[in-house]
Amino acid sequence: MADTTTRRRRGAGRSGGRAGAAARRGDAVIEQMPWDPPVNIDRPTEPLEAEGVAAIHDGAMRILEEIGIAFLNEDALRLFREAGCKVDGDVVRMDRDFVMEMVARAPAKFTITPRNPDRTIEIGGRNLLFGNVSSPPNYWDLEIGRKVSGNRDMCRNLLKLTQYFNCIHFAGGYPVEPVDIHASVRHLDVLYDKLTLTDKAMHAYSLGKERVEDVMEMVRIAGGLSDEEFESTPRMYTNINSTSPLKHDQPMIDGCLRLARRGQAIVVTPFTLAGAMAPVTMAGAVAQSIAEALSAIALFQYVRPGIPCVIGTFTSNVDMKSGAPAFGTPEYMRSTQMTGQMARFYGLPMRSSGVCAANVPDGQAVWETSNSLWAAVQSGTNIVYHAAGWLEGGLIASPEKFIMDCEILQQIQRYMQPEVTSTAPDAIALDAIAEVGHQGHFFGIQHTQDRYTSAFYQPFLSDWKNYEAWESVGGIWTAERAHHLFKQIIASFEAPPMDPAIREELAAFVVRRKEEGGAPTDF
Amino acid sequence: MADTTTRRRRGAGRSGGRAGAAARRGDAVIEQMPWDPPVNIDRPTEPLEAEGVAAIHDGAMRILEEIGIAFLNEDALRLFREAGCKVDGDVVRMDRDFVMEMVARAPAKFTITPRNPDRTIEIGGRNLLFGNVSSPPNYWDLEIGRKVSGNRDMCRNLLKLTQYFNCIHFAGGYPVEPVDIHASVRHLDVLYDKLTLTDKAMHAYSLGKERVEDVMEMVRIAGGLSDEEFESTPRMYTNINSTSPLKHDQPMIDGCLRLARRGQAIVVTPFTLAGAMAPVTMAGAVAQSIAEALSAIALFQYVRPGIPCVIGTFTSNVDMKSGAPAFGTPEYMRSTQMTGQMARFYGLPMRSSGVCAANVPDGQAVWETSNSLWAAVQSGTNIVYHAAGWLEGGLIASPEKFIMDCEILQQIQRYMQPEVTSTAPDAIALDAIAEVGHQGHFFGIQHTQDRYTSAFYQPFLSDWKNYEAWESVGGIWTAERAHHLFKQIIASFEAPPMDPAIREELAAFVVRRKEEGGAPTDF
């Protein structure tokens, strides 16, 4: 990919033609699948026997009982003390009865209702939901051709993709950090962009009181809700990471407690990199991750019984040669599946991710991301963070990668449709087989004609032309095809409708909070 | 990839450095996993309930009983008549009792012993074996940069890759058709190349009596075997496709009967493309595929009870817009899984494939191939044809794709190692977690030191460097990295040892058979 300029130029003719045709048809750039969050119909892949589940559970419980978790949050320490846990300095030890009693309070399923109620998502059970990449500080696309700091335009474009693709069900954190906006007011500008450019379920970073409170207020305003309505059911969520090993930081816990007290949802995702912040053995890394997650969930359930909580996994391994994190590895897949078994053991909804270590949207990026996405499917994951757009271990967001990932996500959506594996008599199709007999073909028969428009998955990015036809329109590789689509989608993007009065109220809130100085940046 | 020249030049420094380092070390180009064919420890993914299995079985049996299969082979028609089946013209109808009785004779497991007995493979049970791409007429690599007809050099290079990679367990058909060799003698030259460049299990095309007999003779010579020894256990195999719908051709059946009579293994793989040669509904396409396969397997079991037979699947769907075949689709994955359930129902080992429709080794190639390889894993497939090197629906072989696929195959090998998911006390690692506590890291502790060299999968092609380090050595995308490895592997390739007397005997056989005119080309 040394010469992206040449490659872009070669593809221009085709992409222009396609965009033109779409404009003539007056429809969208691509024909995509409808909004229809998949239901995972497969039995999960379960590498652990019952004894293995028991061993990891016992390991996690002994970590909580004997080693304890550090909570660098006074509020949390006070609450744990009040609940009868042992608190030594900032280390909290809790017995397994307490933990299990608290965790049992968490619902197995809950909904998040964004400003557009048609985009309500149900988390838990067999639901499988995908969100955009979150939080990379950097951006890469084929046109720029190198890694650059994220800015607000890039962030807005990735938010447009988040909204555009029906296979993206919720908005994660910032799809790229807009580092051109001062950190004190960044959350205000990005949330304004998120709430006006998308109508999907919203996320707040737990990075200090002001940010969390501002985001909750903006989500409330965008939904046209009273405080009471906002708090009556989850409207948004936060995601926190523990500071492995065995530690929760002040702002993360603070943010969660604020959301919990207002009835909003919490995802707790330890980042236990085996061999670095967790044991080099995957079961140990999973046990530690479980302990870290459950300690926080227990706290939130103590404070607000029944508050929706999701157990997240981010257990992967390092490259033992360099110490660099690896993603989508065989060990990553197995730890995700093991965590899935544990999540079901605790009756908690689960989060995992779509991840890779690759630096550009090439073959490696796809096999690592495919591995992680299929591990999510196999583990019974309910929400998949970073499902589209992630590169370089989360340090880069890329629109080409976003679009390539959406192709895979749509395939997973189709894969989960029960009609694919129907064995009803008209699916066995004995009459059609008899009709065609030993000589003909099935193209023209009625059984085919009745079904052909919906019989098979239709990709929007995979190119199924033969080599010669593919070459005749430029011989364009996948990442470059994705780049052309990116340009077209952005050019034709229409924001979801929003009441002008609400938009004004949101804008006024942003202006006022900026005048007040936004949030402190010394978190 | 418009400018492969530039891109190759940019990468040269790095690859040269790597090759130099390898040469200095005096070891292989890459550190790869050892020869250790995976055992599939996962429960298969089973989309069908028991009633679904029964419905497809009943559909297949009714096809055999009511519609029948055409056998364009007089020998087969005579044998079916002798067995009491109804033969009308070339259409054979057989009742389910006969079919099930014959199929029950096939072993659930068997071995193939190639000239190097250390490369013996066991087919069936939970064994998972990978073979090279077979039969593309065309070739593509980054240096050539376009699709060209295959030749003997290309074929030899791909055979070297087949031998080099420990994750390739058997040699399929020609990894590319060397169309520069006349068809009458092509099998002689390629088998000479295959038998001298590799020591893995061999395949014969069932394309006429002379070819099949010549290949059996050459495999016998290469193994230093008497006729009796050759016939005492499978030394090789053939793979046939039916001519869907519902037909078996003369040379395919002829070849299988020849192998069956000499105790060699047979893979029967209908090519039922849903919407073209099979019903547009996947269960119908699977039922038809099962019927086509079982009809041939029943014949072979009638002729030679207990002869090793494998049921193959090649059920995919067409692109309903163009009629072109699609591969690695959601429908492909589900049909492979469904066929896996049927194979277990019949007690037969199973074959599936690693396939894609992509024209170059790009992102699409990887997601389609990953989908098909993981579907093979999930289906309980025993042998995976085309597991490395396939492009453009099997019309192109590519060394870069071969090497990229081997990276994925190695990951599957690692994924299946039980130690990854061990929950033994030292894997839960409570002492290590206690030792590190709330502040440290796990890099330096004894628990990590004792395990770090083997704790995690080490890729040979994935690049886990961060962006800056990756960029500083040329910013090379996956396909180009694979190209560099290809050059190095070929440059340093050493053929497996062969007794000079055997080599001479093989060469003399080729000379003699060429003098005799080889095989007719009007098959």
What topology emerges from the helices and strands here?
2 copies of one chain form a homodimer.
Chain A: H1 4-25, H2 50-67, E1 69-71, H3 74-82, E2 86-88, E3 91-93, H4 96-103, E4 109-112, E5 121-124, E6 129-132, E7 138-139, E8 148-149, H5 152-164, H6 186-197, E9 202-204, H7 209-222, H8 227-232, E10 236-240, E11 247-248, H9 250-261, E12 265-268, E13 273-274, H10 282-303, E14 309-312, E15 316-318, E16 325-326, H11 330-346, E17 350-353, H12 363-379, E18 383-388, E19 390-391, E20 396-397, H13 399-415, H14 425-428, H15 430-436, H16 446-449, H17 467-472, H18 478-492, H19 500-515
Structure report:
The structure is a homodimer of 523-residue chains. Chain A is of the alpha/beta class. The first copy, chain A, has a domain at 103-416 and 502-515: Trimethylamine methyltransferase-like (TIM Barrel, Alpha-Beta Barrel), CATH 3.20.20. Helix content of chain A is 46%, strand content 12%. Chain A contains 19 helices and 20 strands. Chain A has helices at residues 4-25, 50-67, 74-82, 96-103, 152-164, 186-197, 209-222, 227-232, 250-261, 282-303, 330-346, 363-379, 399-415, 425-428, 430-436, 446-449, 467-472, 478-492, 500-515, and strands at residues 69-71, 86-88, 91-93, 109-112, 121-124, 129-132, 138-139, 148-149, 202-204, 236-240, 247-248, 265-268, 273-274, 309-312, 316-318, 325-326, 350-353, 383-388, 390-391, 396-397. Chain A has a 7-stranded parallel beta sheet with strand order 6-18-17-14-12-10-9. Chain A has a 4-stranded mixed beta sheet with strand order 2-3-1-11. In chain A, strand 7 and strand 8 form a beta hairpin. In chain A, helix 10 (282-303) packs parallel to helix 11. The radius of gyration of chain A is 24 Å and the shape is globular. Chain A starts with a helix and ends in an 8-residue tail after the last helix. Chains A and B meet through helix 1, helix 2, helix 10, helix 11 and helix 12 of A and helix 1, helix 2, helix 10, helix 11 and helix 12 of B.
